[in-house]
Amino acid sequence: MANILFVKANDRPADQAVSVKMYEAFLNSYKEAHPNDTVTELDLYEDNIPHFGNDAMTGNYKLAQGYPLTPEEQSAADTANRYLEQFLAADKVVLAFPLWNFTAPSPVISYISYLAQAGKTFTYTDKGAVGLVGDKKVTLLCARGGVYSTEPMASMEAAIRPIKATLGLFGIQTEEVIIEGHNQFKDRSAEIISEGLKATATAAAGF
């Protein structure tokens, strides 16, 4: 029996958001295939995740060093560590988000920033950073209306790539399911989405 954390970073309704459809397809398929696992859902928009900034960075530094924190720093550090502890407690994590304006939505960027804590998800060595949570399974679900898997757009893709790289810093080798091109190719949109959702459900069953 595993603990799995589902994280959603899209506040659009499912009929207007392919990444939300992917989230729901993966969730339903996973529950059907793994009925005894414990599922926790985190909606970053409903949670109104605060933007990562100075209070979180300074608060976590002071906390690690045993220095007194301001109330604002304590609140931000508590927020950061609440997300981190939930992430660390999960055996598996599924993160669903769209590509909007060439990048991921700001809540998921803040979420990943809260997780990036030296000594907890990675550590510094004389050979560089080394991940500390490499045994965690993570699947990234991403929808993007254009085609970003090939040039000229591939070099502009800033949703999957930075998140995958940061999780790689943690030692995690992610799996990805991507649906793309459904806005670019209007005549094949329904087919692209349908095939992508089938692939999403299949990935969930084997996760």
UniProtKB/TrEMBL annotation:
Gene3D superfamilies: 3.40.50.360. InterPro entries: Flavodoxin_fold, Flavoprotein-like_sf, FMN-dep_NADH:Q_OxRdtase_AzoR1, NADH:quinone_OxRdtase_FMN_depd. GO terms for molecular function: oxidoreductase activity. Residues 3-198 form the Flavodoxin-like fold domain. Coiled coil: none annotated. Transmembrane segments: none annotated. It catalyses: N,N-dimethyl-1,4-phenylenediamine + anthranilate + 2 NAD(+) = 2-(4-dimethylaminophenyl)diazenylbenzoate + 2 NADH + 2 H(+); 2 a quinone + NADH + H(+) = 2 a 1,4-benzosemiquinone + NAD(+). Keywords: Flavoprotein, FMN, NAD, Oxidoreductase. Binds 1 FMN per subunit. Its cofactor is FMN. It is an enzyme of class 1 (oxidoreductase). Its EC number is 1.6.5.-, 1.7.1.17. Quinone reductase that provides resistance to thiol-specific stress caused by electrophilic quinones. Homodimer. Belongs to the azoreductase type 1 family. This is FMN dependent NADH:quinone oxidoreductase. It comes from Cohnella yongneupensis.
